[in-house]
Structures are given as structure tokens and as C-alpha cells.
Amino acid sequence: MNSDGHRRHQLEIGGGLLSVVEHGQGPAILLGHGYLWDWTMWRPQVPALSKTRRVVMPELWGHGRSGPLPPGTRNPADLAAPMLDLLDRLGIDRCVVVGSSVGGMWGAHLAATAPDRVAGLVLMNSYLGQEPAQKRLAYAAMLDRVEAAGRVEDGIADAITPLFFAADVGTREPSLPLRLRRGLDGFSAETLRRSIVPLGRAIFNRPNALDVLMRVQAPTLLIAGEDDRARPPEESRIMANLIRAELVEIPRCGHSASLERPAAVNAALLAFLDRLRWGTPVPSVMSADGPAAGEAQNMLSTAASNR
To answer: Dihedral through CA 101, CA 133, CA 236, CA 14, nearest 10?
Structure first.
């Protein structure tokens, strides 16, 4: 165990080395981070979620301390089976899955294929439909350039970074774009070519999987950023209407909600978990986040009344 209370595992799963960080004890929550991040995108959620729950945060292959992407990973559905293996290895019978972006994509496949293992599902800044054609072509060109150069050139980084945040993030949280840029600069040529580029192609060339949502039996919450340029809130509305799920739209929030608006995200997650009776409610945590927490509570109430 680290000095901050985190426990880290290095496990051979799905044909590759998977790094997993854990915190806390109790009913399990499986957190799936987004593309180009690592487990630390959930750092603002860990204190609130882990007070009465076991928080499990795998790092996608090619990210954090995980090894290369296993061969044969062709779409987000291919990431779900290894996560089921992870639950088995950690002795977790059931969990709530919370996924950001690609984490939500594989999370939905996991919930649909193993309904007895998933007690609840949260899709945040995510979309199960096919990538719009214009974006798909643009991302494909970027990935080709990264593969050829063996690095994320400044022009590509300049194009990618705004997709992750609301337009005013530079004035509110200027450290976040800088943090992403440091991460992009830190990928080695080998990691980019063996993992980041192939995983990007698997994500952006994914087939339409909206029908997968229809097979999810677990209660589902959707969280969207009102200013998400990568995954516009309209996409979350499509999914929410399809399965009549609750939707929380967070103002002044882009594609990295857990980092940009952690108080609102924490409030939405805790309210959802409390309704599932997944861990003991902690009222003081709900109120500690101030106005943003109350704002998320109001949005949840509105979403529930509109169901």
C-alpha cells in the first residue's frame, strides 16, 4: 500500500499487463478512465467514493503503468472481457461500473454481457453510437500522423487539447490543458505505435452499438458536459431517451468532467450510488462540495422528474 492509501496491482489479463489501482473497502466500484488519461483522472472522486466503498481503477493498456495493447483489440467491446477477468481476479462478484468516454463504451458492453456482475452503470462523456463520419476521418488522419512521426507533434496536440475541455478551462483550470499536453509528450514512440494509435483506431472506427444499451439491465445514469466538443450532450440525450435513463448535464464542462467539474460529478455519483444503496450514504460529503454539488442535485431531480 502506498502512503496515500492506494494499492496497486500488476496483473496479466487479456493477453497483456494491466495496472490497477485500488482504494477503500466495501461494495466495489469499477472506474474506467478515458483515452489518453490514466487512473489519476479519478483522483478527485477517490476520497468521496472510497469512504465506504472499494474503488478499483484499471489503467488501459498503453496508459499509466499498463503494458502494450493486447493484439486483436478491434473495438471497445474487446476491452470488456478482460475487465470481467479483472473482477474475477480481484474476487469481486458485483460492482457498479463508472466509465468516462471509452471507459463508458466498454462499461456498457460489460453490463450487457454480464448483467449479474453489474449493479449499476454510469456513462460519462461517452457515446455508444458510431463516430460521426467527419470526426472519424479527422481522427484517422491525426492517428496516421502520430504513427508516422512516433510522437504527438505540436500541431496535433494543438488540435487535440481543446477537444478535452470546455472553452473557458484556460481561465478556470489552466493546469488541466498543461497536464494533458505533458501526458501527450510523455508517450514513447513504441507506446504510441503499439498501443495509443491502435486503440484510437479501435475507438473511432467502432461500430454502432446503441443496441447494446437495450440489453443493459442495471440502473443507468448518464453524465454529459454541456460544452463537450468531443461528445456533445446531444449524444447523451439520444442514449437517455433510448433507454429512459437519467441524464445529468453539467454546465461549463467539457469532455473531462471528473477533472473539470469534480464537485458536480461527485454529487451526481454519490446520489446515484445512494439510490442503489451501494455503500453507506455520507451526507457530509454531499454538502462539502458547495454550490456545484447542489447544482448537480438539482439537475438529478430534474432528470428524474422528466423520466
So the answer is: -30
What torsion do the CA atoms of 222, 227, 228, 229 make, to the nearest 10 degrees?
150
Radius of gyration of the chain (CA): 18
Torsion of CA 126, 35, 50, 124, to 10 degrees: -10
Instruction: Report the length, in residues, of the chain.
Output: 307
In this structure, are strands 54-59 and 28-32 parallel, antiparallel, or unpaired? Answer: parallel
- Residue 280: CATH number of its domain: 3.40.50.1820
User: Within a domain: residue 165?
Assistant: no
Whether residue 261 lies inside any domain: the answer is yes
Alpha-carbon distance of 287 to 293, in angstroms, equals 7
The verdict on residue 164 lying in a domain is no
Q: Specify whether the CB–CB gap between 104 and 125 falls below 8 A.
A: yes
Domain total in the chain: 1
pLDDT along the chain (307 residues), means of 10: 81 95 97 98 98 98 98 96 97 98 98 98 98 98 98 98 97 96 98 98 98 98 98 98 98 98 98 95 48 49 40
Query: Could you tell me the sign of the dihedral formed by the alpha carbons of 66, 69, 70, 75, in that order?
Result: positive
Q: Where are the alpha helices (DSSP H) in the chain?
A: 46-49, 80-89, 102-113, 133-149, 154-160, 169-172, 175-186, 189-191, 197-204, 210-213, 233-243, 257-260, 262-276, 283-288, 291-305
Is the pTM of the predicted complex or chain greater than 0.85? yes
Helix pair angle (80-89, 102-113), 10° resolution: 70
